Amino acid sequence: MNDQRLRLDLTELAEEVAVVDLRDRTLRTSRRLGVQRAVAMSAAALVLIAAAAGTAFAVRPDQSSPPLPADTPSVTASPTPTQSPSSTPSTSTSGAPGSPDGGSSPNTPTAKIGKLFYGPVEVTSEQTWNLGSWRPGESPVWLLAMPDIAMRGNSGVSSDGYRVAWVSPENELFVSDVDGSDRQRVRANVDPYCVGAAWSPGGRQLLFRELKTSGGPGRYGVVDMRSAGKTVSWWATEPEGCDAFWAADGRTIAMTTDYGVTLYGADGRKKRVVPGFSPGGWHTRDIVSLSPNGSRIALLRDRSSGDSGDGARDLRVNVVLDTRTGKEFALPLGGRELRQVYFQSDGSMVVRVNAGSGYAVLLVGEDGRKISETAEPAALKDMQILAVVS
Question: Which stretches are tagged as biased composition: Low complexity (predicted)?
Answer without folding.
Answer: 72-110
